[in-house]
């Protein structure tokens, strides 16, 4: 654990990419294989599940530190992070431990099997044998909340440097449904022929946002299609079965049983990059319809009927058991078109249509009409581009339509977390309903640090009531709220929920009397269909 804590500290105290890669590469060269395996897992989002609830940990930590609950809670409010609060308020360790990261994670997993009194004894013993930095990491792992400011791409780069291996090969090896409990270092990294894992997807290629279409150059070099608003997915057909993967490397096959039909419709050795959509009346249903199916282990018949799913195919990555990602996009697209032409109209696969255009003006018109088609904008792909891994600039671009916006007034404020724990950054907004105000959404991003500091000072001076961490404030500060979608929501008093709300700007120029109304939101909802 000492070596892992030193790595975490090195990564946390620098913003320089090269310094982070060097620290990671040095760690991978020196750490034992079980620790390497768990580090790769943690840095790729494969964290142990939560062992103990935060409420229980807070109570045990306050008791061990000899603090009344109110003082612990006040300390937590100032620090903003539970694991950091615990690491700071507990007394110095009474003993030392040389256990490795893998040893500590094994202990954490064992704690989850114990009765509460035994789990408490084990956790208190652990806290008493770890200095603050290691205690912080142990507690993060206990809560299932471990995160680090390193992308998987950066981690793979460091791993490739440490091992002298190809970065793309390692990226592919780390894809799929593995954990340190189901594999070991040799099987994951060293064993030959990773393609033997029939379920394994390819790393996703991600597009950059396009600001100015004039940067594209010659229009004839590009292919255009809609950017659909669903779940990015890969359909893997190998060995007589299929696997459906989300972009977050989550296996979602069982949640979309209608896709199984494609096992009999497409040849084995086929991997398709696509968008998973809920579909009805020959067009995409709102994302909310698809969202009802995302968190379910099994899908009831009624929901299958209300929100049938299909995949909108973008790209062909594997054809007749051959990896064709290095081929030009135009070649891959032609093979995908040939495959889709063999399918009946009722199959749960559609080919994302290529959109003809001759000029940038044509592209702009297509983008302007994207929302009417149930899309978020356009995807632009260079015809000669290979299918790469991760977010690479130059060959793939997403040109989204402008977000929907509404002017609203802030009515509640709450402090943030982490470095924002001493600032009020999380706001609740309302629109007018006659003479009343109706809260309808929350947002916490989009403003500058200077604006957050200014608003925090205002909140502290103008608080009307306190509800735990929430402060009610006078309805005076108006903001323009941007969002990507709007939907009915019986869980909200307003009856409305927004998708990806954020603050576009602080409208200092606008009085509360001129904010939008609940009727204007309902009109947007009806217009979206």
Task: Give a quick set of tags describing it.
globular, DNA ligase i, domain 1, 3 domains, 23% strand, 529 residues, 36% helix, D-amino Acid Aminotransferase, Chain A, domain 1, alpha+beta, OB fold (Dihydrolipoamide Acetyltransferase, E2P), 7-stranded mixed sheet, 22 strands, 19 helices
Write the topology of this structure.
Blueprint: H1 2-12, H2 17-30, H3 33-43, H4 54-65, H5 69-79, H6 82-89, H7 101-111, H8 116-127, H9 132-143, H10 152-163, H11 167-173, H12 185-190, E1 205-206, E2 208-209, E3 222-228, E4 231-238, E5 241-246, H13 262-265, E6 270-280, E7 283-284, H14 287-294, H15 301-306, E8 309-319, E9 322-323, H16 329-340, E10 349-351, H17 360-368, E11 375-382, E12 390-391, E13 396-400, E14 404-415, E15 424-433, E16 436-443, H18 449-462, E17 465-467, E18 470-472, E19 478-483, E20 485-488, E21 496-499, E22 502-506, H19 518-528
Parallel strand pairs: 1-12, 2-13, 8-10
Antiparallel strand pairs: 3-11, 4-5, 4-6, 6-7, 6-8, 8-9, 11-13, 14-15, 14-18, 14-19, 15-16, 17-18, 19-22, 20-21
Description:
This protein is of the alpha+beta class and 529 residues long. It is 36% helix and 23% strand. It contains 19 helices and 22 strands. The strands form 5 sheets. Strands 4, 5, 6, 7, 8, 9 and 10 form a 7-stranded mixed beta sheet that branches. The model has no long low-confidence stretch (mean pLDDT 90).
